[in-house]
Design goal:
49% helix; 3 domains; N-utilizing Substance Protein B Homolog, Chain A; alpha/beta; binds S-adenosylmethionine; eight-stranded mixed β-sheet
Length: 421
């Protein structure tokens, strides 16, 4: 356990200094190729859990160690160990013993006894420490204060439900490739393999428990993909039909590109500004037996990639704060600043303004974000519509005003479908 705690502490410390969890874990895996799948799983569990409950754990640690802890890795180690004591099934004595040994590797003998005192104190005073933590907003909800305020401002009585959903483990949801068989047929296949799942209204299949993809029957042969149920609305809303020219302007890793192509025989161009991420679109399509034109480009720089031929359908799954998918990326709750939102909005407006030019008359553009912050959603779209008199906002979106709030079954998304007059 010691090595696992050490890697988890280093990762959490790195995230708290500003690097994303995915990037940090990728670099740990690259530098330590000897780690087994189960060791990786254990490290991931501690990191995700600690970041999910960070507000509470910090509020507890601040009571146990009121003076600032100068060594970031030691502070992260204590947060990880508190997470394990409160939320994991690991034996408490093993968590404490191993964290204390780990502390000794990080610092001096003094650091070791400090870690020991903090964790044993937690075990003795747990109830009162947790009650005190829960009296603070950040300690109760485990989000940055500005985020909690914004949720209350925008969603009133619903805010706490949304915050709470964001702290749960995300479901694993599948999309049957209808070119290979229906959702019902795939559900039957899952059950025959001993995997329990249920079908949601839009045909998405929600697994009772997440499993590694190689346990999914036919995954390698393209029978199925992993995709959140809310994300599976995009392809249906885009309404692409056989023979249409379709652009997916922010395509990587290609979940929505592939879904559109499973539903209709379209001429697909998939763009992404990130050439490395674009490779994943290629491999996803290949697994599913689909082919598209892939291009690494800034979608807003039309001169660099567009030949002037308009598209019947354009999907703009814009870069955003990702505030609707925090249960999959709990680091976002701590890495985002309120001041970042304006930057995302500027990028979204820039992409929309440029990409509107490539939509054919009578064609449609579907704007998507995985954010539930209004500035990135309906404010972006109403500003856009005000600047573009030839843009008609079509109705029929799911949720309210195009907003799909996260719940047990799906993540949070915003959808706006625009038609060009
Ligand atoms: C929300 S993700 C897209 C997810 C994807 N549509 C899917 O369903 O799998 C946003 C993507 O936009 C890309 N992106 C950001 N700015 C861009 C730009 N100016 N032009 C093209 N792609 C951009 C990012 O690299 C990222 O892959």
């Amino acid at each position: 356990m010691l090595q696992i705690q050490r890697f988890a502490a280093q990762t959490v410390a790195n995230v708290l200094s500003g690097t994303s969890l995915n990037a940090t874990l990728d670099s740990v895996w690259r530098r330590h190729r000897q780690l087994t799948a189960s060791e990786r799983g254990a490290i991931q569990d501690i990191c995700y859990g600690t970041l999910r409950h960070l507000g509470q754990l910090r509020a507890v640690l601040d009571q146990l160690a009121p003076k600032p802890i100068a060594i970031p890795e030691l502070r992260a180690l204590l947060l990880c160990a508190l997470y394990q004591l409160e939320y994991s099934e690991a034996a408490p004595y093993a968590v404490v013993d191993s964290a204390v040994e780990c502390a000794a590797q990080i610092g001096s003998e003094h650091v070791k006894s400090f870690a020991n005192a903090v964790l044993r104190n937690y075990q003795r005073r747990r109830d009162v420490l947790l009650a005190n933590a829960a009296a603070l907003d950040e300690g109760r909800w485990s989000y940055a204060g500005w985020w909690i305020e914004r949720m209350r401002r925008d969603f009133g009585a619903e805010a706490e439900r949304i915050l709470e959903i964001g702290n749960r483990h995300p479901p694993m949801t599948l999309r049957a490739n209808v070119r290979r068989g229906s959702a019902d047929e795939y559900l039957h296949r899952l059950r025959q393999t001993g995997l329990d799942a249920r079908k949601l209204d839009n045909g998405a299949l929600l697994l009772a428990r997440p499993v590694p993809v190689d346990r999914l029957p036919g995954f390698g042969e393209g029978a199925v993909s992993v995709q959140d149920a809310g994300a599976q609305l995009a392809a249906t809303l885009l309404d692409a039909r056989d023979g249409m020219r379709v652009l997916d302007a922010c395509a990587a890793p290609g979940g929505k590109t592939a879904h559109v192509m499973e539903l209709a025989d379209v001429d697909m161009t998939a763009l992404d500004a990130d050439a490395v991420r674009l490779q994943r679109v290629g491999s996803n399509l290949e697994r599913l037996g689909l082919r598209a034109r892939l291009q690494a480009a800034d979608a807003a720089e039309l001169d660099t990639w567009w030949n002037g031929n308009p598209f019947d359908r354009v999907l703009v799954d814009a870069p955003c704060s990702a505030s609707g998918i925090v249960r999959r990326h709990p680091d976002i709750k701590w890495l985002r600043r309120a001041s970042d939102i304006a930057g995302f909005v500027a990028q979204q407006q820039r992409l929309l303004d440029a990409l509107w030019k490539v939509v054919a008359r009578g064609g449609k553009l579907l704007y998507v974000t995985c954010s539930i912050f209004g500035e990135e959603d309906h404010a972006t779209i109403s500003n856009f519509a005000a600047r573009h008199p030839d843009a008609r906002i079509l109705g029929g979106m799911p949720g309210r005003d195009g907003l799909l709030l996260p719940d047990e079954d799906h993540d949070g998304f915003y959808y706006a479908l625009l038609q060009k007059d």
